[in-house]
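Pilot study result, target chain (666 residues):
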Amino acid sequence: MKRAKRYLVAVSALLVLLVGGGVALGRALNTDDELMEDTTPKTMDVILSEIRSLMQDYSIEAYIVPSVDAHNSEYISLHDRRYQYVTNFTGSAGTAIITLTGAALWTDSRYHLQAENEIDPSYWTLMREGLAGVPTRDQWLLEHLSPGAQVGTDPFLIASTEYERLGTVLAQSGYRLIALERNLVDIVWNNRPPQTVEELRPLGYEYTGQRAADKISTVRDTLHALGANAIVINALDEVAWLLNLRGTDILYNPVFFAYAIITHERVHLFTNTERINETIREHFRTEGLMPPVVDVRDYQDILAGIDEYVRDGHRLLLSTACSQALYAAIPAEQRLQQYSVVAKLKAVKNAVEAAGMQRAHVRDGAAVVRYLAWLETTVGGDDNVTELSGAAQLHAFRSEQQLFVDLSFTAISAFGPNSAIVHYSPSTDTDLPITRDGIYLIDSGAQYLDGTTDVTRTIALGQPTAFQRECFTRVLKGFLSLASAVFPTHASGTVFDTLARKALWDVGLDYGHGTGHGIGAFLGVHEYPPSFVSNTASPSNQGVVENMFSSNEPGYYEAGQFGIRIEDIVQVVRADVPHDFNGRGALTFYSNTVVPIQRKLIDVQLLSEAEVTSLNKYHRRVREQVGPLLLEQNDSEAYRWLIEATEEINTPTADSLAPVHQNGTM
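Predicted structure:
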């Protein structure tokens, strides 16, 4: 009851602040609506009917349900999966819009096949973003609203920049976007999982390489430069990185629910106060944050904390990714907004973090090699290996590695047609046996105290077709092109996206996802910046600098048949070249991932001599770094497999790039 009262206080504060910020609000519902005792799961028909009834109470014709939480997190807790509750779609990205007479779900090409399998078309229309003829959310709304209609959304679940953009689009056509003080999904969700509150984990200097006090000092330098008095930090990984703390509030993501306000003198941490025990207080002292520098408040008090500084006339800095609720709590004349200061600092790893990432990837490489060797000897034998049992075995190999904490995401263990689903997750309903007749794709990663990993390998345990070999080799060519690139400091991520796609584009092939994402150091497996995508407007496309870490992951997917992806985590390092781009600095990539790339799937005739040399050099390093660890772990079978898997490839006698068609002819 105490926490419920705090929630109501926060909601009341939001009402006042949002009205003061010029944001329209729907009328409040009776708080008794929350008190539901019947936890019997509701049907989709009941869920949508109840939401539509609430929409009429609020006088709105459309309600937007995003796939994020209040911190704009990509991966969210069970408690926050409103999007999944109303659609049954389990993908990590998308937007659902419910109107009084219909409902539509937008998601990108990574999830088109998955969404088709999960949503009920009698209730939901799938909007496959990126395909010709598919209306955008804006277009669809404008086509389905009556004159003067209102569209509602939860201000905590929409970024301020998106709220302003969409509001402007709607207003130009006579419609109105309003921020509701209640989340309609929460009202009807009668069996909602509780929010977990776990203990925090202090992360020592041997892993972070920088004290929290020094990180905060750098943030304060930015405040001075901008003439701001405080910064509001809403991203969970940014709070965790800044304070050198980790948590387990979201599966596979070592973060905890919190906000922070950093001023020139104080650090206000908004989280569950019960987990700030003597261990955490001692951690703050070790990190140079002596009492009373750190002020810990309840998580629900963030709006009240912002209001204290607003009333004192201070100027506050916000990220462009902050929620509309936080943005509207600060009057325009006291508000500064820019791409996250902390995100840019966090993306560039210091020497300790970079060394830790390299060590973590060697141990992780040993686990993946053991798994691939195990597959080679087990598949087709007496034991039936499936997507799920295979992923479980890989998890077991990883758990034996030093400093292992958890996985970094649910493994994409995908065989045959399932491998064409980019973000496929096996379940008991979809679990296919892994056989020697098809392509197997395993995209997986782990959280270690000294680093986060993410690696994808595609293998054929039997004999691949000529078309599969061509597709794999063209993906490999793009992978090698990106890995060997030399470029000036602050080169745009779009450059690398193009390099990775060229060999596929040459014959009219492509893939529908980005080529690279940043990665944290014992933090999120997806972290931005950097970002290797074709969209030049991406806020995380701010240029690549030394000691950023990114994935390198081109692919190709043939729906219903097979999928191919090769992924390493690469580190931006200095390049040894004759010139230096007129003083800008020359950079290249170093692959932290050390796992063999299957030679059976390579059509050597499609590789240049330089590409063969590069791959052989990589495989020598894999053997040198992972081999001794396998022997140390007494896995002689995996070691023998590694030696064979990293044998040199002979230079092709001809460098032919003639395409092989699906029927296998030239």
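One observation from the pilot: Residues 20 and 331 are 8 Å apart (CA to CA). A full batch analysis is planned for the follow-on phase.
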